[in-house]
Structure of CYTH domain-containing protein:
Amino acid sequence: MPQEVERKFLVQSDGWRGLAEGTVYRQGYLCAEPGRTVRVRVAGDRGYLTIKGPTQGIGRAEYEYLIPLAEAEEMLDTLCLGALIEKTRYCIPVDGLIWEVDEFSGENAGLVVAEVELEDENQAVTCPDWVGEEVSGDVRYYNASLVRCPFGEWEEGGG
Amino acid sequence: MPQEVERKFLVQSDGWRGLAEGTVYRQGYLCAEPGRTVRVRVAGDRGYLTIKGPTQGIGRAEYEYLIPLAEAEEMLDTLCLGALIEKTRYCIPVDGLIWEVDEFSGENAGLVVAEVELEDENQAVTCPDWVGEEVSGDVRYYNASLVRCPFGEWEEGGG
């Protein structure tokens, strides 16, 4: 089974800026339940359909398929639940790992998170100094949650 | 937008038997809501992921993608909602149209329906004599409904 194992952190400074070019992401969900999510994503000029299973530790099953861009855009515009997620992703190599910094816009403006994908749950990770608190287990930061409850509406957050 | 326009009927006799070879279908749903369904299907030795939008008349948006068989089978076994649908499909050409006869097994055993896909909603259809009552608008016969409420549990149906 294809498996995604990743850790997620808040970004605490601007030290990552200028280290990579960004790609604009636009994504939404056909299904956003704890046990399964079905995500439609447009990343630059590519469309993807991604199914994820329930989170187990910091891993979860993930199935991703490239689909025609026009169909991904149609599904985003007509079929997805709630608000769409808009963000710019910067892929930054540090010590042999790729850190994906997501800078959100729209209703989640103000939120910047960094994810690192791992080979397995026990892999050691050295965080760059612009990486702050870990939020791997915090469902509020799931993109599927941000559709229903965007960062801009959090009391202690972006408000 | 890719669009599916089809009419669905009950099958009232065995006149269709022997007219085509059957293919075994096994399918389940990652999402089965009125406004959207996400279906995983194994048809013979092929896997598919299909997204459908809300029904409008007898039409609905449909996006279908071929996916690796092993991944489709894993999703059926681990991620789908409720019971799986098992049926054998027979594609029978009649007067220039293809009639898809679905003979259900498992929890929906006893149910046999015939669907015909059309170019548009107003296309004339001449039904073969083994085709009975039309059930196009009846949500109970949607495959996504049969997952939650199988034919074998209907009071007036297969019970």
User: Anything to note?
Assistant: Chain B has a mean pLDDT of 93. Chain B touches chain A at residues 1-2, 30-31, 35-36, 38, 49, 51, 53, 61, 63, 65, 67, 71, 74-75, 78-79 (CB under 8 Å). The domain at 3-153 of chain B is CATH 2.40.320.10 (Hypothetical Protein Pfu-838710-001).
